[in-house]
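Dear support,

I submitted the protein below through the web form. The confirmation email said the job was done, but the results page showed an empty box. After a refresh the structure appeared. I'm attaching both so you can tell me whether what I see now is the final result or a partial one.
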Amino acid sequence: MDSQQHSQLLSSCSRCTPDQRTKLIHTTISGYFQFVTFSHRWGDGEPLLRDVEGHSIGDMSTEGGFGKLKAFCDRACDQGYWWAWSDTCCIDKDSSAELQEAIGSMFAWYRRSALTIVHLHDVANTGSFRSSEWFTRGWTLQELLAPKTVLFYTQDWSLYKNHFGSNHKANVNVIEELKRVTGIEPRFLTEFSPGMDDARSRLQWASLRHTTRPEDIAYSLFGIFNLHLPILYGESAEKALGRLLVEIISQSGDISVLDWVGEASQFHSCFP
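What the results page shows now:
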C-alpha cells in the first residue's frame, strides 16, 4: 500500500470512468504480479526454504547455490519483473502435503509464468545445447514444454549464443537446435498443450531422461499428460510407471504406448 506503484494506480484511477478503472486495476495488478520461474540442474549446496526465509537475497552469500539463486533474481530484475520463483527454496520440502501439492502443480506454475529462465551451468559461451545435462533430466522436460516464454543462459549467465530477444521460443535457430537435441517437433516446443494427444511421442521424449529418485521418472510426466495421481515416494519406479500407463490407456484408449522397439527397458515389468 505504501509503494510507488500503488500511488500511481490511485492517481490514474481518479481520472477514469468506472469501467476504465476496473480494466486499469486488473491490467496493472496482473502485470505487477507476473512472476519468473527458474529451471536448472540441481547441484550441491542448493538453498532451501529455511535458508532464505526472512532474508534479503541481496544480503546472502554468493557461494554455490546461493550465487546461482542471486544471479537468477538479478536476471529476473533485468527483464523487468518483481517476482521470482525457484524450486529449491520456494517449496517447504519438510511438509509432505506441500511437496505433493507442488509436484502436482508444477506444470501449471511454469505455464502461468511470464518467463522461465534456464541456466545451463555446463555450457560455455561457445558451447551448444548438446553438451548440457539439463536435456537429460526428467523434470526439465516439463520445464521446457510448459512455459510460453523461455530464455537460456550459459555458464557465466550470458544469453545462449548471444540470441538476444525476449523469448528464445520465438527464435527459429534456437527451436531448430532444440528439435535436434530433444527429438521434439517445433510445434510442441512452441505451442504445447498438456493431455493425451500423441501419448506415445510424449513417452518417447522422456525415455532417455533420468531422475535422482526412481519414482520421479513417472511423477515428472503427470503435468505433461494433465494427470492428477497420488505421489507415493517409496514405491518402485515400476509401480509408478505402471500407474501412469494404466491411466494413460484408460483415458486415451491408445494402446500404442505399449508398442516399443529397441533395447529392453529396465521398467519392462510394468507392462501387461
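Response: this is the final, complete result; the empty box was a page-load delay. The chain has eleven helices and four strands.
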